[in-house]
Amino acid sequence: MAANIGILRRPVSTEGVWGWITTVDHKRIGILYGVSAFIFFLIGGIEALLMRVQLAQPDGTFVEAGTFNALFTMHGTTMVFMVVMPAGAAFFNFLVPLMIGARDVAFPRLNALSYWLFIFGAILMNFSFFKAAFPDVGWFGYAPLTTSEYTLSSSTDYWVLGLQIMGIGTTAAGFNFVITILNMRAPGMTLMRMPLFPWMTLIVSFLIIFAFPPLTIALTLLLFDRFFGTNFFDTAGAGADPLLWQHLFWIFGHPEVYILILPAMGIVSDILPTFSRKPLFGYTTVVFAGAVIAFLGFGVWAHHMFTTGLGAWATAAFAGATMAIGVPTGVKIFNWLATLWGGSIQFKTPLLFALGFISMFMLGGLSGVMHAAVPVDTQQQDTYFIVAHFHYVLFGGSIFGITAGIYYWFPKMTGRMLSERIGKVHFWVMFIGFNMTFMPMHILGVLGMPRRVYTYSVDQNWAGLNLFVSIGAFIIALSILLLIINIVRSARKGEAAGMNPWAASTLEWAIPSPPPHYNFAVIPTVRSQHPLWDEEANAVEPPPLPAHGEPHMPDPSYWPIVIALGITMVAGGLLIWQANTWLGLLVIAVFGFVGIRGIYGWVFEPVAEESAERVHAHH
Amino acid sequence: MRNNRPTGAGNTNTVTTPTAHPQNLAATLRRLLYFTLAAVTLVAVLASCDTPLTTFEPRSDATQRIHTIYIFVIVAASIVGFLVLAAMAYILWRYRERPGHTPQQIHGNTTLEITWTVIPILILIAIAIPTIVWIAGTTADPDEDALHIEAVGHQWWFEFRYPGLGPDGEDLVTANELRIPVGRQVAITLEAKDVIHSFWVPQLVGKTDMVPGRTNILEKFTPTEIGTFYGQCAEFCGSAHALMRFRVHVDSHADFDRWVENMNAAPVEPEAGSVEAAGARVFTNFCARCHTIEGVSTEEIGPNLTLFGDRATLGAGILDSTPENLKAWVSNIRDIKPVLETTNAMPTFYVGDPLIDQLTEAQVDQVVAYLKSLKLR
Questions:
Q1: Any idea which architecture B275-372 has in CATH?
Q2: What is the model's pTM?
Q3: Which of A93, A253, A587, B60 fits B204 for a cystine, CB–CB 3.0-4.6 Å?
Q4: Between A470 and A149, where is the model more confident?
Q5: Closest Cα of chain A to B166: distance in Å?
């Protein structure tokens, strides 16, 4: 067989940088996602700190209006699309196959493609900083402010194309994980024996599949308006409707909130039993509450639009649906508390962060119910009260949950423990900094401070609270420094983790830390929800290598990064086209060919390269 | 691995390593509670401070209704939040890891779970009822004697039109400072000229967006107190969004009627040879290309400046209308406001550079004197 249909020789080695670039191993891709998300977390955090310096005093002159608007646009876009989503993806990738007893995801190369599209899209968007300026139309990009009529700068084009490219990767990942979880569970692992984290991954993957298409459509229409002069959102022409953008954006945007929070809920649902030493209370309820939240999440988008003049009936219906979503959320919180009830609670760092998640997320949920009450929302919408609310949900919720996950699974991922002492200090500094930053924002909202203002005047009397908030933001930054110190310390002299340092119950703890590239030497047979706790049913043996040696995993492939490069540079060609038609068309043609050639190479690539010694070994 | 099993007959190998100091944790949680209480007190104190955009000092029937519901949901949410946090603190303290305690392996309890599904439903219904009643109330037709106004959002200022109150039954037009009489219902419709803005006067009425291509209806409201109230654009609308503010003057009926009458009259001709007369010429030659003064000019590209001398602020509510501020504004608004270089932006008139300047400093002083002279009679 003509094994090599590429131009370059197919990579076989998994060593070095080239090994990372061509990897199709879900664990390595998970680490790539995690490291990328962390770097963007630092960038997005610096953007937040710059804003807080500007707002620390009235009539601030630290940055100009345009810069401030770019900062909040990129802070929001970065934290949503380049931090919390890929951080979730990092856990999906690393953990889901381990937790369901699989050797990899269903489509390893597609998985790599998802990552490369994410990172290239993110880089493309941030590249606008060097070319023109950061996008400055808000992460929500309300039309018609985003149309060429009102935004001359090409930064909005970078924003549209960057999001579009990341969206392709995310959607592909959604399909990949649905198929993986539905098809590749170990024998005996029925869906109702699956740990909560893979369950929430399954739900989030469905959310992604259904929520991203509306965003893709909205971005495509906007792209047509901006590049080809169509008239979907540009109200200067007849027939355009700026509210169409808002509907499409929030039909994506609200499920997106659950895409950001459900992974954290899954993490917490798996951490609580481990450190309470008893199973999750009401497993079935918690699973179905997650599914109900996801389902209702598609029916509440217009609560972002209560003040747009939807009409009384629509407003009332969406208010009702929004309040209804509070019920399954509340049920989850009660079930978590009931899990702790009667337990033997070990206050390890992962549990502290999980408890931080429950308490802070609950406060965010309660303030969310407040603005489901439409009259109240007419006073809260677009004020700092909203900023406080969604930071309680997305920082107090998602980030605390993700940090709990980092402390919990870091030993599994690296084979080394993080310091408990530094970890506890990290928790308290972050918890206090978080509340100093975001609790007073509720008050600022009550006092009428609008969002997205680069300045406020002395006579508005918001100065004291804003200074306090800014100090809190720097305390959060300090806590992140502690996390970095902890990770660096662990890399240098962290104690070995062993297979199961927390004495946990799920499958990923049945294999060495870090896991071998094939995960399970022998695929385990599962007989309960807690295979490592359940003595009689425990079929998870220490993994002996079968006689024929290591299980053979798919070889690395460079086609994913080639295709991702092709897609990204076609977008780059569109951007060049704005300035130089022929050069732009040339770039589009060349990289369009690269992308298509990549698909061809991908399709005809064999699972494994038939090298001479392998052929030998097989006979 | 088998040793990990947390409980069960015959297994003595339960993990019981003592960790942390639960007493400290309880103390910390207590401190947290005090912190929360202190924060709540702070809200009460700060709300009584002079913050002109506060949502907690309603001065109309509409905001009073909202305020009542607001307080109700805050109290409801606070009670729920406090109870759950207290329960959590108790559980963490009560079930902290202790030697010899092996937790019972409970998997769930249907009765309990149904209970804590039903309770939130009841609480949410209690919040939903006043919400729906309020929404239904907003659909009512305006009173017969309601004052009708059209508010139009521009990047970055507010235009206010009073249909029928202008000369010959046309619109009376003003900008950035809305005048309404106390005790009379106001029915405002909202439009936008360019991008989406939002109309919000926290003490008088909740916000509703101004969307280009649509006409939105603001909730009807009746101001209950004479005074000046702050308004603010509440939807991000581009570079100077933060500086898109306005004022609402709630006047007595007599003052309001006098203002309407004055708005319909041409200004008194300035004395020949005065600074104001020179300013009037500058206005006619330059400013009148964009601005209307009733009886003097008719262009509506920029804000209407009739009776400008009586305005408290300039530049969409961002500066006090002092002669110094007005001079800086007329000279070069780019020093004050981050305008975009679109065709509608006000030109730079005087920066001391003959290549750029359209006016001399003396001419700026003249036009400032003229604008400040446009007062009620």
A1: Sandwich (2.60)
A2: 0.92
A3: B60
A4: A470
A5: 28
For the stretch B198-219, pLDDT in tens is 999 999 999 999 999 999 999 9
Instruction: Give dist(CA A298, CA A300) in Å, integer.
Output: 6
Contacts of A333 in chain B (CB under 8 A): 84
* Per-residue pLDDT tens digits for A284-314: 999 999 999 999 999 999 999 999 999 999 9
pLDDT band at B345 (very low <50, low <70, confident <90, very high): confident
Instruction: Give me the architecture of the A25-178+196-553 domain, per CATH.
Output: Up-down Bundle (1.20)
Q: Is B96 exposed, middle or buried (0-12, 13-18, 19+ CB in 10 A)?
A: buried
Is A447 in Cβ contact with B53 (below 8 Å)? yes
CA distance B99 to chain A (A): 9
> B175-193: string of b/e by CB count within 10 Å (b at 16+)?
bbbbbbbbeebbbbbbbbe
Q: For residue B24, is pLDDT > 90?
A: no
Is A63 part of the contact surface with chain B (CB cutoff 8 Å)?
A: no
What token pair was written down for B310?
């009586």
Residue of B119, B135, B199 best to disrupt the A interface, most CBs of A under 10 A = B135
Q: Which residues pair with A383 in a beta bridge?
A: A450
Domain ranges for chain B: 17-138, 147-263, 275-372
Chain A interface disruption, residue of B109, B209, B221, B237, most A CBs within 10 A:
B209
Do the strands B172-175 and B157-162 form a parallel or antiparallel pair, or are they unpaired? antiparallel
Which residues from chain A sit within 8 angstroms of residue B105, using beta carbons? 278-279
Axis-axis angle for helices A349-372, A312-324 (nearest 10): 160
**ipTM, 2 dp:** 0.91
Count of C-beta atoms within a 10 Å radius of residue B102? 16
CATH topology of domain B147-263: Immunoglobulin-like (2.60.40)
The model's pLDDT over A220-229, given as tens digits with 9 standing for 90+, comes to 999 999 998 8
Q: How far apart are CA B63 and CA B201, in angstroms?
A: 10
Q: Calculate how close chain A gets to B192, using CA atoms only, in Å.
A: 10
Q: Three-state DSSP class for A140?
A: coil
Distance from CA of A375 to the nearest CA of B (A): 5
- Which value, in Å, is the radius of gyration of the alpha carbons in chain B? 30
* Secondary structure class of B188 (helix, strand, coil): strand
pLDDT band at A8 (very low <50, low <70, confident <90, very high): low
Using one digit for the tens of pLDDT, what is the confidence trace for B97-154? 988 888 888 888 999 999 999 999 999 999 999 999 999 999 999 999 999 999 999 9
Contacts of B127 in chain A (CB under 8 A): 323, 369, 372-373
Domain ranges of chain A: 25-178+196-553
